[in-house]
Design goal:
Blueprint: H1 2-5, H2 7-16, H3 23-60, H4 62-68, H5 71-88, H6 91-95, E1 96-107, E2 110-122, H7 127-162, H8 166-171, H9 173-214, H10 221-233, H11 235-246, H12 248-258, E3 260-269, E4 275-284
Antiparallel strand pairs: 1-2, 3-4
Helix pairs in contact: 3-4, 3-5, 3-7, 3-9, 7-9, 9-10, 9-11
Length: 287
């Protein structure tokens, strides 16, 4: 969604300092692409939040995990994530608008009118509306989920590594190796994913809040926001790398996906001394 519906239009806007087109089409693209941008970010962090809560329930509150850790519950969690994302970012559909500006170029000592251009900007009824919405986005859609995830993963780490159930390990070590150790590996991957998301998006969210209240939108503001947004978008590239290097199951599935099946004939000696030939499919890791 980010790559196909957001980046092309906003990259053009960042480079040219002008929106792609005007009219009803330009107005729609201005609202829609900004809306999609916010939805992708918020839905990502809420999905990570749901995963963290789910892992916390399974590992630290297993008594209620049977009721909450079901397919039906998973569909409900997904629906809630997307409903919140769609509703929380809906102000962009109202207050994101096209602004017409006069384009002027300088010729020697004269200023010559060079047509009209468009900017995709926010228009709130008053200054408080923009500040309140930015504070809401920063506090409730970024800081609060990050704080909850930090708490849940902290409790999970305490449960698995700092203060594990010693009695269960001593009574049934095989069960511990079969059940607990795979959970530890999964949690390590999710903690790294959570930290990557938090660190890469923190500069963008923080600078947006600072710029809104400090009113420091100078000539370099657009470039600063573009760089910080690019750092945040890099999270989409980091996640596959994290899964590749830290998740053995992911590595195995990728190998199986790209492996080729080779047909090999094997001569089998039977008990009667006769020789039969049968064909087997041997999977080889050949790229």
């Amino acid at each position: 969604m980010i790559a196909s519906l957001n980046m092309p239009f906003h990259l053009h806007f960042i480079v040219m300092n002008e929106w792609l087109t005007g009219g009803k089409t330009g107005e729609f693209l201005c609202k829609f692409t900004t809306y999609i941008q916010g939805i992708t970010i918020v839905s990502s962090i809420l999905t990570l939040l749901v995963i963290a809560i789910d892992r916390y329930i399974v590992i630290c509150s297993h008594k209620i995990a049977g009721k909450l850790h079901t397919k039906k519950a998973a569909y409900i969690y997904l629906a809630v994530v997307w409903v919140i994302s769609l509703c929380a970012l809906s102000p962009h559909l109202v207050f994101q608008c096209l602004d017409t500006r006069v384009k002027v170029r300088k010729f020697k000592s004269f200023l010559i009118l060079d047509g009209f251009g468009y900017l995709c900007v926010e228009f709130y009824p008053n200054d408080y509306g923009s500040k309140l919405y930015t504070a809401f986005t920063y506090g409730f859609l970024y800081i609060l989920p990050v704080a909850i995830m930090a708490y849940t993963y902290g409790r999970i780490a305490h449960r698995l590594w700092i203060h594990p159930p010693i009695g269960d390990i001593l009574e049934n070590p095989l069960h511990h190796q079969r059940v607990v150790l795979p959970k530890e590996k999964i949690i390590k991957v999710m903690i790294v994913v959570f930290l990557a998301f938090t660190i890469l998006w923190l500069p963008f969210f923080t600078f947006s809040l600072y710029a809104e209240f400090a009113e420091t939108k100078d000539a370099t503001f657009r470039i600063k926001m573009a760089v910080l947004k690019l750092i945040g978008y890099s999270n989409c590239c980091v996640n596959p790398i994290i899964y590749t290097f830290l998740n053995k199951n992911f590595q195995r599935e990728v190998l199986q996906l790209f492996c080729k099946n080779r047909v090999t004939k094997i001569r089998v000696q039977t008990t009667a001394g006769s020789t039969n030939t049968r064909t087997e499919m041997i999977r080889k890791s050949k790229f």
